[in-house]
Design brief:
The chain contains 13 helices and 14 strands. By secondary structure, it is an alpha/beta fold. It has an eight-stranded parallel beta sheet. Strands 1-2-3 form a three-stranded antiparallel beta sheet.
Length: 361
């Protein structure tokens, strides 16, 4: 099976509600999709969201990276030559991790299809069910409480609360949500780099003192502030999850060896795909550090690729794969089944997505 070409398209998916964090507000998913075409007429699919405030990638940069750098590097290569493909993919252009992730997942999709096997089984095959949290966007407290209660009514047992804009007032928001949903619902707090180190310790300590039972706090300080992350991790009891601070295997080693976080959040759009994400999993296993698998605001195709990785590796103990649940429509037939808080893997070969409408001729 030889790569003949890589086609590029776009999708537009309205969100059920605006998605709001300390970094941005989004009303629609507007992603780049790709299709790798082979000499056997088999296709592999990939998707990449332009998340400029996190990865630096825009729609234009993703398209250019795929068309002008990645496609010339990979055309003519055998799908079985995974190591060679991914070495070329990662060396043909610096950074541009979202573009690389889209192509990476399409290659893995084809590789698994070639052997008529679901991707998660080729990657390790740990489980067939993955439980995800759901994100509660930054809004006035009454609205966040209402959104939390709605999520619990739908069956979600884990809520990821977006904060980071109000400093100590964020504690009042978490208190209100905890009182509303009760003690049995897990709460994760994501500041999206919204606090500084001293502020983080003050806020997290206040949550601890009030007995809010927070499972973890995600990326409390700016991504580049490794010393700040280290300070926070060393001064609070609540586990700290590194997200924007970890793009690469090298970042993961640095964070872990310096005690700058207790947990690592793996996102394919940061790592450049599954190939590099597996390296982080291996490092985390060596050090005994558990991982979360997360997503940007993405459609079902790329989130499904992440779900296959989550189902494959036991070191991934938590999932934040709610992207498809936040979308009003789903343009991708096939793939894992999204049943509110549960993602159910199936036996379809590859990632399982049957087609992408813009390539359906």
């Amino acid at each position: 099976m030889i790569i003949k070409n890589i086609e590029v398209g776009e999708i537009f998916i309205p969100l059920a509600k605006p998605f709001k964090t300390a970094l941005r507000t989004v009303k629609n998913v507007e992603d780049i999709v790709i299709q790798i075409v082979t000499d056997t007429d088999q296709s592999g699919f990939g998707e990449a969201p332009p998340t400029a405030v996190i990865t630096g990638d825009t729609k234009g940069s993703i398209i250019t990276a795929v068309k002008d750098f990645i496609t010339p590097a990979l055309v003519g290569m055998e799908i079985d030559n995974l190591d060679g493909i991914f070495r070329k993919l990662n060396s043909c252009i610096v950074k541009n991790t979202s573009a690389k992730a889209a192509v990476d997942m399409a290659v893995y999709d084809l590789y698994a299809k070639q052997y008529q096997t679901p991707l998660y089984k080729l990657l390790g095959g740990t489980r067939t069910l993955v439980e995800t949290d759901i994100t509660i966007s930054v809004n006035p407290v009454p609205e966040m409480v209402a959104d939390s209660l709605e999520a619990v009514r739908k069956g979600y047992k884990i809520l990821k609360i977006k904060v980071g804009k109000e400093g100590l007032k964020d504690v009042e928001c978490i208190m209100a949500i905890r009182e509303a949903v009760g003690p049995d619902v897990k709460l994760r707090v994501d500041a999206n780099q919204g606090w500084n180190a001293k502020q983080s310790v003050q806020i997290i300590t206040a949550m601890e003192d009030k007995g809010l039972d927070i499972e973890l706090v995600e990326q409390p300080v700016p991504a580049h502030d490794f010393k700040g992350m280290q300070f926070v991790t060393g001064h609070v009891a609540t586990p700290i999850l590194a997200d924007e601070s970890v793009f690469s295997a090298e970042d993961a080693i640095h964070i872990i060896q310096n005690g700058a976080a207790d947990l690592i959040n793996i996102k394919l759009m940061k790592t450049g795909g599954i190939y590099n994400a597996l390296k982080i999993c291996d490092i985390a296993e060596i050090y005994g550090v558990e991982c979360m698998i997360g997503c940007m605001l993405e459609g079902k195709l790329s989130v499904s690729a992440a779900a296959h990785l989550a189902a494959a590796r036991g070191i991934i103990t938590r999932a934040d794969l709610d992207g498809p649940s936040l979308c009003k429509t789903d343009p991708f037939p096939g793939g894992p089944s999204y049943e509110e808080n549960l993602i159910r893997m199936n036996e379809k070969p590859g990632i399982g997505i049957e087609k992408i409408p813009c390539f359906d001729k």
